[in-house]
């Protein structure tokens, strides 16, 4: 799908749309190096989303993203490394990628104040990110002993 697959208005609407788990399945919060994909739907079940949780092995960090329409990244929270935007500006860690019409998720900005209540706690970051992305009913994600 092209980077301009959605209008900015549609992407903003999809990000704000209230989301619930697509099923009652249980997912295990990944250990370092692991990844899960949690299916979400809009309350009216007309739109499908995916919450991806990727805990990178080398960077020892966690990344979170929400996708719509299978491939369009609406929001991604990165903790791995600084990011260079298309205009050459650099954004530190952590940073937030939001869909931008014509660019997809290639632009990032500093995480706005108030979104992350405890950036050092990956479990809390997950819950803060879900809230930011409009997840109004948390999926059944089980926290492991070492996660």
Low-pLDDT runs? 57-62
> Which strands sit side by side, in order, in the main sheet?
1-3-4-5-6-9-10
Order of helices and strands: HEEEEEEEEEEHE
**Largest sheet composition:** 7 strands, antiparallel
Which assembly state applies to the chains in this document?
single chain
Describe this structure in words.
The strands form three sheets. A seven-stranded antiparallel β-sheet has the order 1-3-4-5-6-9-10, with helices on one face. A two-stranded parallel sheet has the order 2-11. It has a two-stranded antiparallel ribbon with strand order 7-8. The longest helix is centred in the C-terminal third of the chain and has 11 residues, at 122-132. It is globular and about 40 Å long. It has helices at 8-16, 122-132; strands spanning 19-21, 26-28, 35-42, 48-56, 61-68, 72-78, 83-84, 90-91, 95-98, 108-110, 140-142. Strand 7 (83-84) and strand 8 form a beta hairpin. It is mainly beta and 147 residues long. The protein starts with 7 loop residues before the first helix and ends in a 5-residue tail after the last strand. The model is unreliable at 57-62 (pLDDT under 50). The protein has two helices and eleven strands.
């Amino acid at each position: 799908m092209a980077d301009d697959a959605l209008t900015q208005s549609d992407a903003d609407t999809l990000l704000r749309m209230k989301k619930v788990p697509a099923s009652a399945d249980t997912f295990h919060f990944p250990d370092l190096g692991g990844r899960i994909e949690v299916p979400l739907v809009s309350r009216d079940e007309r739109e499908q989303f995916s919450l991806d949780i990727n805990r990178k092995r080398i960077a020892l960090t966690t990344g979170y993203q929400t996708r719509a329409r299978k491939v369009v990244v609406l929001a991604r929270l990165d903790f791995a490394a600084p990011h260079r935007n298309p205009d050459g500006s650099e954004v530190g860690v952590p940073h937030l990628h939001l869909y931008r019409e014509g660019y997809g998720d290639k632009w990032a900005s500093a995480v706005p104040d108030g979104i992350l209540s405890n950036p050092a706690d990956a479990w809390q970051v997950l819950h803060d990110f879900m809230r930011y992305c409009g997840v109004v009913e948390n999926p059944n994600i089980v926290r492991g002993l070492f996660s």
